[in-house]
């Protein structure tokens, strides 16, 4: 798949959202603020917002044909080349807009997020996952009108090979591509499972949270790693895993995962399942929230919803309120403490209160720790040495025939030792 141009001239964009009876204006503006961030990350210049009250979705144009024509006329006056809808448009709606729009490109939030993911995908796994999500999104929307317009315009929404090479690709070829990508992902998942078995005896902790909440900065602060950090949405897509030794008897595997966001395209969630397994298989989830964000409560709800979708809502969680250094208002700090009573406030950027966070992690780990007694003969020196790895040796008693050990460790490690002993 040809990857289009990353360095395109900034396209002027209008954001469009529908105000339904189930949503108030404040919530709608929050959604549009987020859409504006996404558009900025993709390289667009947002020049305006259009909202329309609707009682029901128009099957042909989402907001009705009359409003759609007014919208396109307004876009021409403002020299706008890109309309971005906050909700996903159906294939029929996309097709109708392309018939009406002439030289103006019409995309939805899903297409915009896919565009950003393609821009940021680095590893083979991330690229495969994004390509699969892209083709599954494209397949029902592939029309002569779509490919013709994309060939003419390029830019945002066209990064994923919707240029010259894409025009020749018909539905059959796209289905073949989807089939091949699914096979590739199965191979990648098998490799992940093999790696996962090796790590099964270790305590696993995953950083989850809204994109741009500071997860990667916290990951670097705790592990000393040098994961790419950038003040933009979806700066990293690949899960990074590092060992973290809190103290001699508390070691864990810490993973930094892809950020969450509202209305994440379901194709994307499905194709990123292998990456998100780090979340599903974790013993503890550190939910990182940006204290300085006015949308922190909404972000918390989004994360809860995504975790529920992943069937990860039963896993133990610890809320980490990050960016405390960015808040001057003490009343806001007290308010957030009341809203998230069991949370830990930190500044990952300035390494503030990280020791407090580590203490809380240790206390949670301790709830899954067990103490057992093991005996080894002098001939079992190798087995005895292995039994002392990754655990705390509480007592060591030498006898005439060998050594008795009392050890304490995470239940996964203890179960592994009991099988081998």
Can you tell me about this structure?
About 45% of the residues lie in helices and about 20% in strands. With about 425 residues, it is of the alpha/beta class. The strands form three sheets. Strands 6-7-5-8-9-10 form a six-stranded mixed sheet, sandwiched between helices. Strands 2-1-3-4 form a four-stranded parallel sheet, with helices on both faces. Strands 11-13-12 form a three-stranded antiparallel sheet. The longest helix is centred in the middle third of the chain and has 28 residues. It is elongated, with a radius of gyration of 26 Å.
Strand order of the largest sheet: 6-7-5-8-9-10
Give the domain tally: 3
Strands, total number: 13
Classified by CATH, the class of the largest domain is: Alpha Beta
Largest sheet: 6 strands, mixed
Q: What's the helical proportion of residues?
A: 40-55%
Beta-strand fraction estimate: 15-25%
The H-and-E topology, N to C, reads as EHEHEHEHHHHHEHEEHHEHEHEHEHEEH
CATH-level-4 superfamily name of the largest domain? P-loop containing nucleotide triphosphate hydrolases
Chain oligomer state: single chain
| Mean residue pLDDT | 84
Low-confidence stretches: 1-8, 144-154, 159-166
Rg, Å, rounded:
26 Å
Name the descriptors:
421 residues; alpha/beta; Rossmann fold; Alpha-Beta Plaits; six-stranded mixed β-sheet; four-stranded parallel β-sheet; 21% strand; disordered N terminus
């Amino acid at each position: 798949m040809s990857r289009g141009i990353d360095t395109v001239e900034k396209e002027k964009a209008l954001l469009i959202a529908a105000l339904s009876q189930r949503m108030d204006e404040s919530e709608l503006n929050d959604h549009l603020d987020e859409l504006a961030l996404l558009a900025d990350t993709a390289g667009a210049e947002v020049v305006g917002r259009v909202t329309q009250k609707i009682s029901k979705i128009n099957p042909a144009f989402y907001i009705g044909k009359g409003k759609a024509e007014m919208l396109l006329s307004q876009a021409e006056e403002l020299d706008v080349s890109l309309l971005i809808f906050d909700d996903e448009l159906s294939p029929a709606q996309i097709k109708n807009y392309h018939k009406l729009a002439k030289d103006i490109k019409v995309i939805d939030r899903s297409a915009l997020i896919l565009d950003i993911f393609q821009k940021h995908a680095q590893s083979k796994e991330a690229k495969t996952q994004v390509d699969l999500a892209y083709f599954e999104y494209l397949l029902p929307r592939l029309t002569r009108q779509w490919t013709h317009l994309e060939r003419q315009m390029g830019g945002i929404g066209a990064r994923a090979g919707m240029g010259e090479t894409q025009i020749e690709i018909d539905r059959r070829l796209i289905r073949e591509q989807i089939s091949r990508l699914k096979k590739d992902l199965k191979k990648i998942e098998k490799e992940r499972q093999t790696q996962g078995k090796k790590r099964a005896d270790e305590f696993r902790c995953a950083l989850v949270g809204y994109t741009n909440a500071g997860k990667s900065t916290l990951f670097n602060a705790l592990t000393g790693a040098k994961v790419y950090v950038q003040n933009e949405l979806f700066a990293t897509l690949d899960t990074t895993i590092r060992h973290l030794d809190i103290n001699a008897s508390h070691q864990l595997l810490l993973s930094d995962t892809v950020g969450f966001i509202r209305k994440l395209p379901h194709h994307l969630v499905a194709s990123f399942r292998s990456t998100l397994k780090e979340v599903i298989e974790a013993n503890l989830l550190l939910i990182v929230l940006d204290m300085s964000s006015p949308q922190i409560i909404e972000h918390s709800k989004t994360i809860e919803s995504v975790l529920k979708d992943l069937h990860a809502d039963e896993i133990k969680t610890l809320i980490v309120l990050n960016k405390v250094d960015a808040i001057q208002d003490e009343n806001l700090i007290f308010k957030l403490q009341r809203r998230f009573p069991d949370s830990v406030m930190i500044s990952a950027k300035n390494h503030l209160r990280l020791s407090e966070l580590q203490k809380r992690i240790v206390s949670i780990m301790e709830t899954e720790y067990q103490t057992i007694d093991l005996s080894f003969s002098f001939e079992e020196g190798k087995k005895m040495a292995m039994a002392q790895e990754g655990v705390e040796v509480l007592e060591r008693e030498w006898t005439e025939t060998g050594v008795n050990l009392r050890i304490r460790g995470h239940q996964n490690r203890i179960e592994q030792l009991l099988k081998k002993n």
